[in-house]
Amino acid sequence: MNQPILLAGGVNVFKYAAPQTFYPLAGKLMPWFFWTAALLCAAGLYIGFFVAPTDHQQGEAYRIIFIHVPAAWMSMFIYVVMAFWAGVGLIFNTRLSHMMVSALAPTGAMFTFVALWTGALWGKPTWGTWWVWDARLTSELILLFLYFGFMALQAGIDDTRRADRAGAILALVGVVNIPIIYFSVKWWNTLHQGASVSLTSAPTMAATMLSGMLLMALAAWMYSIATALHRVRSIILEREQGAEWLKHLPEATK
Amino acid sequence: MAETPPGGDKVNWNSWHDFWVMGGYAFYVWGSYAATLLLIIAEIALLKMRRLSAVRSLRQNTNTQVS
Hints:
The complex is a heterodimer of chains A (254) and B (67).
Chain A (H helix, E strand, L loop, with lengths): L18 H33 L13 H28 L2 H33 L7 H22 L3 H15 L2 H11 L19 H33 L10 H4 L1
Helix pairs in contact in A: 1-7, 2-3, 2-5, 2-7, 3-4, 3-5, 3-7, 4-5, 4-6
Chain B lengths: L15 H6 L4 H41 L1
C-alpha cells in the first residue's frame, strides 16, 4: 500500500488494519457491543413473552421464532462477512482480515446449530417431525458443515499463512450456499414456510411479534460483534508472539 | 384463550405457572431457549479460557526475555 486510502475525514483506513492498532480499539469497543446485546436481548424477550400475543394457529409454540429467525439470519450473515474478509485477505494480504475470518467462524457455527436445534423443536409440534430433508433444512445443515470444515481445515494446517489461504478459499467457495439457503423456500417446494419478513412486501406477522423478533436479531448482531472482537484479540496475541509492541501491553507486564 | 382486544392489552399469562407451561409447548419452547442459553454460556467460557491462555503465554514470553 504505497498510497494510503484516506476517508473523507482524513482517517487512514489501513491504520486499523494493523493488529497493533486494532487490538486496543477492539478491546475498548467489545464491552459496549456486549452490553448493548444484553439490553436488546432483555427488551426482545420481554416483548416476545409478555407483549406479543398468542398465535391463533400455533399457540405458544411460535415463541421459538424469537431465537430461531435471528439465529438463522445470523448464521447466514456471519458466513457472508467471513467470505468478505477472506476475499480482502486474499487480495490485499492483510493478516488482520484472515484473523477476523477465524474469529467469526465459531460464533457462526453456534448460531447455525441454534437455528437447526430450535427448528427441530419447532418442527415437531407444528409439522409433526423433527427433521425433513427439504431444501431449506438441508442447505442450513450444509452451512454447519462448512463452518466445521473451515475450523477443522485451519486447525489441521500448522503453517498459519497456508491455513489462512486454504480457509479463505473454502469460505469463498462455500458462500454460494448462502443464496441457496435464502431462496430455497422460493425455488423449491419445501415444508419450511416462506419468509415472514422481506424487503419487498409487508411483513405477514403482528407488529409486536415483529418488533420482538427484530430486537432479538439486533441483539444477536451485537453479540456476534462482541464475540468476534473478543476472539480476534486472543488470536492477535497468539499469532503476534514475539512482536515488540505486545511486550508493552499492560496485560503483558502485570 | 381470551380474545385479544385491538389495543393489545391482554395479559398473556394469568400466573407464573401458566408462563412455564407455555400453553402445553413447554418442552419445545424452553428446550429451545435453554439450549441457546447453554451454548452462549459455553461460548463465553471458551472465549475467556482462550484469552487467559493467550495472556499467560504472552507473560511467559515477556518475562523470559526480560530476565
